[in-house]
Amino acid sequence: MEEGGGGPLGLLCRVGWPAKPALSRGGQNPRGEKLCGHRRAPDWRAETKPAVPTSARSPSPPQDFILMADSKPAVDGEPMDMEALLQSVFGIVIDEAIQKGTSASEKVCEWKEPEELKQLLDLELQSQGESQEQILERCRAVIRYSVKTGHPRFFNQLFSGLDPHALAGRIITESLNTSQYTYEIAPVFVLMEEEVLKKLRALVGWSSGDGVFCPGGSVSNMYAMNLARYQRYPDCKQRGLRALPPLALFTSKECHYSINKGAAFLGLGTDSVRVVKADERGKMIPEDLERQIFQAEAEGSVPFLVSATSGTTVLGAFDPLDAIADVCQRHGLWFHVDAAWGGSVLLSQMHRHLLDGIQRADSVAWNPHKLLAAGLQCSALLLRDTSNLLKRCHGSQASYLFQQDKFYDVALDTGDKVLGGGNKETGRV
Ligand SMILES: Cc1ncc(COP(=O)(O)O)c(C=O)c1O
User: What is the CATH number of domain 173-428?
Assistant: First the structure.
């Protein structure tokens, strides 16, 4: 098996080939044991030790052996000291990314044009391993030519700064590298998610409800649209668009573009998004919302959702939530608040009033990775629902994961609430 760094930053999932053809494309060794996935042959290491020195190997190896790392990384057969490597990497990160990266006397970015940068980084993925020193030099180069978003002179529309607590949490979650679909694979993170969501809901003003962390505010908004549609037309989960009349949803002209993207992605079509007028400060005009609802009905569409924005992306406007909630109540519409940007105002005694009425929402999208400086990405979708709508809408009951006869409360297996599979569901852990 080819070992060592091999290419930019060293692929920790190494690509290589055994001396004898021991592994088929199907991920099995000659005894038919599955090697990639949950089970691995215990003596796989012995079987795949290279029989020929690296220098004697063919220059173009077959690329069909992608193995789970179950041995210590090595360069030219010598085991690499993993702890020493990581200590060095952490040292570089502290010096270059954190200390220099947040120092006003350093540059925000060592800018290079793409062609020059390609040359400097030498990005081609190679089949040969690299020495630890080369790998460390690559680490330094990645940091040197990247934008330092924690720098005091880095000004981004929506996030910036480096919060050491958030970073500490991310170092731990990255090191543990887990999925989060069941309690048994992520007991700590499942309980943490539950507790954090409970706290965020309490800040919204709900003593009960549901929610999930999503890979970003755009996805949170899309989940809300899907949930609103499913709640009105549960048949659509099975029958798809055939179960639906032409639907209409409403948002202001200052909304985030993810509303349009979500409408396209969910098969509603961007024509189903009715654009409500905003005033000179960028706030939705509730009278125009109601006018548009009547107009959509007159044109044969069925209104089902209003998405208000708390903290519009460009102007930072806060839609008048109470007045919009009144309209939703009169017309029986799902009330979503896209508070991806402005939700953190809930923590401010001075500005909390901007979100008055948010407790009347059915769903709220809130990105702690924006104003709260949590690491990218961290977006919560909060729901007032207590009827397990998330799971009913998205669940698929995969029996190999979500067995109902486990020895703990299977309500803690939250993975069936979301669209992701065995991945980390960025933002959840
Ligand atoms: C109001 C609003 N909603 C949604 C989003 C999308 O969030 P994300 O970038 O996490 O997908 C943004 C991002 O800028 C936003 O400002």
Answer: 3.40.640.10
